[in-house]
Amino acid sequence: MWVHQKDGTFSPNSWCTVRPKPSTMTYERGIFCQRLDDLLNHEHELVKLAQVIDWSLLEAKCGALYAEKGRSGVPIRLMAGLVMLQHTFQLSDDDVVSKWVENPYWQFFCGEEFFCHKLPINPSSLTRWRKRIGKDGMEQLLKLTIHAGQATKTITEANLQVVVVDTTVQPKAVAYPTDARLYLKVLHALVRIAKQHEIKLRQTYTKSAKEALFRHGQYRKAKQMNRAKKEQKKLKTYAGRVFRDLERKMDEETFKKNRGTMIMSHLVLTQEKKTKGKIYSVHAPEVECIAKGKAHKPYEFGVKASLATTAQGGFVVGMMSCPGNPYDGHTLADQLDQVERLTGKMPERCHVDKGYKGHGAERCQVIISGSRRGITKALKKEMRRRSSIEPEIGHQKADGKLGRNWLKGSQGDMINAVLCGVGANLRKILARLRKRLYLWLLSQLLPTWRIPFAPIACPQAA
């Protein structure tokens, strides 16, 4: 069994799995099977990428998070490889494990020597592994992709001198919040507590609340707002009655066990239109309402995320979640510190938009878009690369998992943000290696091509 700590993380001694042995190649040959490195194309981009990544560094960093006694752990390279592939190709936990069995290149990337016909792990193990290594371990994965990008010449040392920083919203996997649905969710949560602890309520109102929510939706669709408000008020009354009845009949020990649900229910029932720190989802109370000024999407429900990319190439050198919806300028110093932590050096110049005025960052030259004082011709040309981060955010939301975060809690927000940067970098590296493979194949085929030549008969001169 493993136990949660007070800060929401897991201590090494609370896990029952021992530190896995370092993954090493045995170079043994089976009687009835061939090795993967004998079957695969060594010029394939995943084979090249697997050879570039320093897996031993990751095993040394994450190995301290395992216990000293217990059952043998799953290899760290296998778990890290599955997480990388998952965010590179935008897959769920179940899909990445099932497709791993079908793809020999994925198995080689994760450190297998022979082709495996069985599922490597249960998909739920990915959830526990993400919680085990936490945000710091995910930053190690992002650091490995940066080193791999330098090794494959996807980025250079000169690219790391100039970065672009911007923020976006990482939407949470929640339904669009409405007060009526929130009251029904609170009612169901309270009734579950009563059934779990065998507390007999005067009335549960589950059937009446369901009918009221149905009528509320009908009235809203028919634009009969006064009738819809009456049904919403009924839902709030039902939830309030159950809350007060359960609070009276609950002893102190039961209240401590369900303290979070009871406090959240009280906040939902007492919050109003202009209340700060409102709750928008029962199963994800950390969700915030963020307005980015978009015409097609005025409000987004999730958490703010900060992104740092190179001005040339758009390679991700830093990514983090910013809970609490802070002002963009107040997130810049922490973002630049993360860039220095991952790349080993502070960038010389950082380009941001006008939302970063009053940032207070002094360790790097921050250039705000639209600035004119002290801007040379070279800097003016460089400032045009500020908008290059916008399509990178769009690609991470369309091709990655930044468009909808399925991980639970604030820790899930932090982990998903960093992993989205890992997936974006791996897609760029694979595209670079794929291009090199195409050029190599072209160079091999060109000498063998022969253009048929037929001499054209010239007319005889008269």
Would you write up a description of this structure?
- The chain has about 450 residues and is of the alpha/beta class.
- It folds into three domains: about 10-150, no CATH class; about 160-175 and about 290-430, Nucleotidyltransferase, domain 5; about 180-280, no CATH class.
- It contains 16 helices and eight strands.
- The protein has helices at about 35-40, 45-50, 55-60, 75-90, 95-100, 105-110, 125-150, 180-195, 205-220, 225-250, 250-255, 260-270, 330-345, 375-385, 390-400, 410-445; strands spanning about 15-20, 70, 160-170, 290, 300-310, 315-320, 350, 365-370.
- The strands form two sheets. Strands 3, 4, 5, 6, 7 and 8 form a six-stranded mixed β-sheet that branches. The chain has a two-stranded parallel ribbon with strand order 1-2.
- The longest helix has about 35 residues, at about 410-445.
- It is globular and about 85 Å long.
- The model is unreliable at about 1-15 and about 455-460 (pLDDT under 50).
